[in-house]
Amino acid sequence: MSTALLIFWLAGPAWSQTDSWFTGSCAAARRPIPELLLHEVHRARVFPVPYAALHESIVLLETRSFVALSPTQVSRLLSGVDVDLDSGLAAAARDATAKAEKREAAARDPFFKDHAEMFWSEARAYRALAADALRLRGGRTAPYLVRALVLNEATGGFSLYLDGDDLCVFHGSLGHSPVPMTRHPVVVYLERPPKRVLVDVSMAE
Which residues, in sequence order, are bridge partners of residue 171? Predict the structure, then answer.
């Protein structure tokens, strides 16, 4: 039997100061799990900029929400980061396939018969995520530097979603009191440039 994880959202705003990069309205990040997975950008394609290059990356995004990067810029901004997209996407496909198999097994288990359709739906989404990871290997994506914000960086992580031509850059974290938003750009590999970049954050306790 699975154990439920209870998350309590802060009653008021999770931030003490709003940054001009913040757009909110990142509806894709709050979809039900099956739909969410169908919009998710594989974590293997997402690289937060290391601290040593933060200033340069923020300057590049001063007037634009995203910029296409040259190989030289990627090497400089992600210095010391292992960017092996094909291996990362293959690993993402294996992980999604394993999760799909677990959902399928649960769906077949009579004990979970009341939740079978939910498990089948999640399994199909994970299968689609795996297939998409394999499809994108072989240089079918290009690097973009995009705006992003964090609250408690040490207790959270980035999740990116494509909603049509919009890219949602979402950071969720844990904390007990509001903190200022902090700029922390991300390099993401996409098939085509986004039309808009939506930047959103949240905090739970």
Answer: 158, 201
| Domain range annotation of the chain | 15-204
What is the model's pTM?
0.89
How far is the C-alpha of 190 from the C-alpha of 149, rounded, in Å?
Answer: 19
φ, ψ at 4 (rounded to 5°): -75, 140
* Cβ–Cβ < 8 Å for 61, 117: no
Burial of 185 (0-12, 13-18, 19+ CB in 10 A): buried
Structure confidence by residue, pLDDT tens digits, 100-145: 999 999 999 999 999 999 999 999 999 999 999 999 999 999 999 9
pLDDT in tens, 60-111: 999 999 999 999 999 999 999 999 999 999 999 999 999 999 999 999 999 9
Q: Are the C-beta atoms of residues 71 and 83 closer than 8 Å to each other?
A: no
